[in-house]
């Protein structure tokens, strides 16, 4: 990309959650459901002395994408690190459930989820976990009718129970700046020791869980530049491609075959992981 094009590019990462949703949807079709004026916020945070946010950190946007009805669910990294509580996760789960119901009624509702999240909100514990489980079930239901597309761009990444949500998506799009993993670097270091994973070693972290490596190992379908227009184009392309022959979560046998090649006694390297997983897991 030349210098002028680089200067004119709109960074997707630098957009807030609401702006990301607006940019993905067709022009003048954005309509927010349960917006901040509805004051649907967490009933638990205030009891712990934590300032709440009127949308509980999740934007639900309805509109059209490539001329078709769509819902975009965008997580706000600026509130509680994008963590999921009872309300924010229920907004996502409920929207996906309604999208599946629309499809059963002949309305081809699509869904895009924008991940910027460390997973469940610890202050809401089991309530958040239960709602995330409802998101899992809703995606599996909806993706029978329409592809469910996930995007992780940065800077928070996608971890915890929400990384399972990402894994259940029909397609996953990531940028170089993104990270994707079940456990975050600090948690791995805490449980397995610094020799296993040094949470201060940023190059090492991205070499294992960054968007480029996740694409190389087949855990991400589209490796995109931090360009809002390019990411929208990638979303449209994936929707036009339709449902994949098999979603990642349906390829259990293939993943078990790849895992059997991993030597648990040896310190893993990004090169070894790429060599093993680049063989593929879809039969």
Class in CATH?
Alpha Beta
State the end-to-end distance.
Answer: 37 Å
What are the segments in which pLDDT stays under 50 over at least 5 consecutive residues?
none
Shape: globular
* Main sheet summary: 7 strands, mixed
Strand order of the largest sheet: 1-2-3-4-5-6-7
C-alpha Rg, in Å? 19 Å
What's the total count of β strands? Answer: 7
Domain CoA carboxyltransferase N-terminal: 1-247
Pfam families: Carboxyl_trans
Protein name: Malonate decarboxylase beta subunit
InterPro entries: AcCoA_carboxyl_beta, ClpP/crotonase-like_dom_sf, COA_CT_N, Malonate_beta
TL;DR?
It contains eleven helices and seven strands. The protein is of the alpha/beta class and 283 residues long.
Write out key terms for the chains shown:
alpha/beta, 2-enoyl-CoA Hydratase, Chain A, domain 1, seven-stranded mixed beta sheet, 283 residues, globular
SSE layout and pairings?
Blueprint: H1 3-8, H2 17-24, E1 31-33, E2 58-65, E3 68-75, H3 86-104, E4 110-115, H4 125-142, E5 148-152, H5 161-168, E6 171-175, H6 185-192, H7 202-209, H8 211-216, E7 222-224, H9 228-241, H10 252-259, H11 270-277
Parallel strand pairs: 3-4, 4-5, 5-6, 6-7
Antiparallel strand pairs: 1-2, 2-3
């Amino acid at each position: 990309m030349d210098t002028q094009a680089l200067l004119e590019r709109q960074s997707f990462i630098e957009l807030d959650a609401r702006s990301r949703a607006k940019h993905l949807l067709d022009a003048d079709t954005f309509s927010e459901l349960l917006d901040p004026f509805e004051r649907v916020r967490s009933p638990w945070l205030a009891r712990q002395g934590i300032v709440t946010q009127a949308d509980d950190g999740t934007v639900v946007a309805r509109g059209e994408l490539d001329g078709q009805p769509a819902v975009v669910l965008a997580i706000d990294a600026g509130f509680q690190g994008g963590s999921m509580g009872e309300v924010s996760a229920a907004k996502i789960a409920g929207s996906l459930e309604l999208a599946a119901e629309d499809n059963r009624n002949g309305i081809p509702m699509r869904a895009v989820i924008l991940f910027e999240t460390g997973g469940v909100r610890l202050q809401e514990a089991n309530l958040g976990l239960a709602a995330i489980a409802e998101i899992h079930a809703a995606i599996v239901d909806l993706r029978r009718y329409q592809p469910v597309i996930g995007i992780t761009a940065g800077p928070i990444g996608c971890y915890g129970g929400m990384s399972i949500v990402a894994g259940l998506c029909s397609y996953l799009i990531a940028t170089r700046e993104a990270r994707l993993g079940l456990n975050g670097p600090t948690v791995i270091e805490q449980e397995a020791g610094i020799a296993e994973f040094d949470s201060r070693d940023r190059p090492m972290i991205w070499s294992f869980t960054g968007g480029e490596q996740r694409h190389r190992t087949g855990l991400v379908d589209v490796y995109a530049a931090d360009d809002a227009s390019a990411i929208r184009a990638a979303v449209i392309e994936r929707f036009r491609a339709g449902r994949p022959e098999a979603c990642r979560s349906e390829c259990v046998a293939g993943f078990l075959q790849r895992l059997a090649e991993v030597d648990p006694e040896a310190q893993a390297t990004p090169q070894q992981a790429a060599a093993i997983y680049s063989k593929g897991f879809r039969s």
